[in-house]
Write a structure and sequence with these properties.
single chain, mainly alpha, D-Maltodextrin-Binding Protein, domain 2, 3-stranded parallel β-sheet, 3 strands, globular
Length: about 120
């Protein structure tokens, strides 16, 4: 009886392995195209430099291209609205700093942040 139970467990494990491996092979590796980090601050400042350093390190880990774009204006509203208007597929990121969070609290913008969580919280 123990032999049959052991054999049944081995066969079911073997079959379930095939069931779970199928979808893993069907998935594409991320990223399949360049990732864009949209920085709210102008080029050359602390926030821009930190985002470019992060992008360079992430390129090595992801083995893909990361483009840093500066979208200045409106205390970060231009960059936020650009990112939020894009498809939510992981290819458009917002590069921010603590100053942007302070501006968002002090100034009313049309950007709705409900349900969104920062991926990286940094100090620029």
């Amino acid at each position: 009886m123990k032999l049959w139970m052991g054999l049944l467990a081995a066969v079911s494990t073997f079959i379930s392995g095939f069931l779970f491996l199928g979808p893993a092979h069907a998935q594409q590796k991320f990223p399949t195209r360049p990732v864009e980090i949209n920085v709210w601050a102008s080029a050359g400042g602390g926030t821009d430099i930190v985002n470019r350093l992060i992008a360079k390190a992430m390129e090595k880990e992801l083995r893909g291209s990361i483009v840093v774009s500066n979208r200045t204006g409106g205390g970060g509203a231009i960059a936020m609205n650009h990112v939020w208007s894009r498809p939510h597929d992981g290819y458009n990121w917002l590069g921010s700093s603590e100053q942007m969070q302070i501006t968002a609290v002090m100034v009313s913008t049309s950007t709705d942040l409900d349900g969104r969580t920062p991926v990286i919280d940094q100090v620029g």
